[in-house]
Amino acid sequence: MRISYKLMFIVVLTLIEISITLWSVVELSKGATLHQLNSLHLKNSAIFSRQVSDFVSDIDTDIDTKVNSMEKTVLEIKQQPLDCLDIVNALNIIIMKAIGTYEAYLLCEKDIKDVDKALDSIDQFRAQKLSLPAFLSNMEASAIIFTENSALFEKPITQTVNFLLAVFIPLVVIISLLNILLITFLSRNITQSIGSTIRVMKEKNSSLSQEDIFATTTGELRELLIVASERARETVLQEEINEKLEQLVFKRTESLSHANDELTRFAYRTSHDLKGPVSASKSLAQFIQQDIDAGNYTAAKADAMKVELQMKDLEAHISGILSLTKATEIEDSSNIINVAELLRERIAVLERRSTEPKLDIRMTADDKLFFEANKVRLQQVVDNLLSNAVKYRDRRLTSWLTISANIDKNSLNLCFEDNGVGFPENREKEAFEMFTRFHSSLSSGSGLGLAIVKKHIELMGGSISISPSQASTESLGSVIEINIPAPNNTVVE
Amino acid sequence: MNNISALIIDDSEINRYILNRQLKLVGIEHIFENDDGSSALSFLSALEENMRTLKEKFPPTIIFLDINMPIVNGFDFLERFVEMAKEKAYQRCKVVIYSSSSLEEDKERALSFDCVSDYLVKGDSSLDELKLVVERLH
């Protein structure tokens, strides 16, 4: 049951209790009033008796005055039964009838009739329709009747009052006790249901689900629980959202500062590396002037040629930087590529450029090796690696390059192994950095080739590594391993 | 300045050529060149043989050292050279860093070596500066 209903019940019961108590008090006070009226009636009857006896003892003088005063007393006597009838209500009549004291009511009515009779006698006497002796005997009879009525009235009234006392006081006491008991019970009941709800809520590792907890409660407590849990859920949700936002901001800030660092490094390395040929050319230009001044034109020409080489170097650097920048800009579309075909095509392009074969290229790849990737990127990767194999071959040996390609676990594995000059021990990491040149004497270049390759691979979500070749026995050689995952993890068979 | 000899360690041929010519302008006649830290270390370590053939020109008075080199870079060279210079004969050798790196961390690290006397940035330092460095060592 709802707590508000329980409280309402208590209020109603208390109101009933108070009403009954008040009513009892009113009824009991009525008894007192009736006693009072009766004693007034008795007193007036006594006055009347005396007036009658005075009249009897002196019948000659002041008849009119005596009759008048007697009439006045009789009228006063009449007032008491009238008052009595006034204060008695229907319920009182029912009670009186039930306990057999209704005679009191009838007595009042009879008393009024008796009074009326006496008044009638007085009127007849005044109209001289009644003789004096008859009038006096009537008055004496009336005086006796009035006194009798008073005497008879006392007993049923006392009985009624006693009955009321005997009934109402225990009733009020019982109702009060009941009320106290009920209030105690209901308040305990309310406290217990709140207490048990708190206990269930406090219970740790409870196997009860939220719905189970709700089921144990009813009414306002249930509403309170539902509203509170919703509120708590909202708070938790809000906190989660805040936390996620914070993480997002942190991640973004981190990636931004990372990008910023990378940009700073890029700018430093780029300008630094571009500065090299420029400063060299500046010095060479000074030498040329000195040589011309000294008339040494041969030396001047040699230095001029050196300037030209520096400029070519600078050009290579700039185009390297451009293609590195472009690597990021290539549109990220992917096509189904026949990998073996692409490799064969790029090898053919390489071989067309040089007149004499410098490299023995062997390829291991399934003719129907299809893979979904960005063709432009993959082509640039292959071209760079092929050109590196040619540039950094060991000229003392018969150079070879082995290319193998296969698909494993939805990703493309490419491996380029050669018996070239390789790279210095423990310098694997530097190999992919911008402007790293381990063998500047072998070939001119920007030192950006492998950096571009790595950029492409990373933009395709793949990885690249370099290690010395085990197959190459006479030189260090190198093995470049590439792994590219298929976009959307789909491979066309 | 006839008794001064110099060693240039730099992987760039053009840089060696330029510095060589500038040093000659400053007045240094005897100049050795190495294209990497490793070849420089093997040149320097052949003490007896070089002293016999090169006489007072060996070991070189000034070593011009580049930092970014493919096999043994400038710092690797310095670490190994410090060990080598415990030998009395090398104690007159002073190292001048001649690098294109203007990074403060590189400069600090290089100057923390006792044998390093100066740090010159390629392209930024003039002939007069070079002259000053050489004269101070003399």
Essential attributes:
heterodimer, A: 493 residues, alpha+beta, Helix Hairpins, Heat Shock Protein 90, 3 domains, five-stranded mixed beta sheet, two-stranded antiparallel sheet, 12 helices, rod-shaped, B: 138 residues, alpha/beta, Rossmann fold, five-stranded parallel beta sheet, 6 helices, 5 strands, 44% helix, globular
Structure commentary:
The complex is a heterodimer of chains A (493) and B (138). Chain A has three domains: 3-197; 230-329, Helix Hairpins (Orthogonal Bundle); 331-489, 2-Layer Sandwich (Heat Shock Protein 90), CATH 3.30.565.10. Chain A is rod-shaped. Mean pLDDT of chain A is 87; it is low at 489-493. Chain A contains twelve helices and seven strands. In chain A, a hairpin with a 2-residue loop joins strand 4 (400-408) and strand 5 (411-418). In chain A, 23% of the residues are buried. In chain A, helix 1 (3-57) packs antiparallel against helix 5 (132-202). With 493 residues, chain A is of the alpha+beta class. In chain A, the strands form two sheets. A five-stranded mixed β-sheet of chain A has the order 2-4-5-7-6, with helices on one face. Chain B has 138 residues and is α/β, with parallel strands linked by helices. Chain B has one domain: 3-Layer(aba) Sandwich (Rossmann fold). Chain B is built from six helices and five strands. Chain B has a five-stranded parallel β-sheet with strand order 2-1-3-4-5, sandwiched between helices. In chain B, strand 4 (94-99), helix 5 (104-111) and strand 5 (116-121) form a beta-alpha-beta unit. Chain B is globular. The model of chain B has no long low-confidence stretch (mean pLDDT 86). The A-B interface holds A 268, 272, 275-276, 278-280, 282-284, 287, 306, 309-310, 424, 437-441 and B 11-15, 17-18, 21-22, 35, 70-71, 100-103, 122-124.
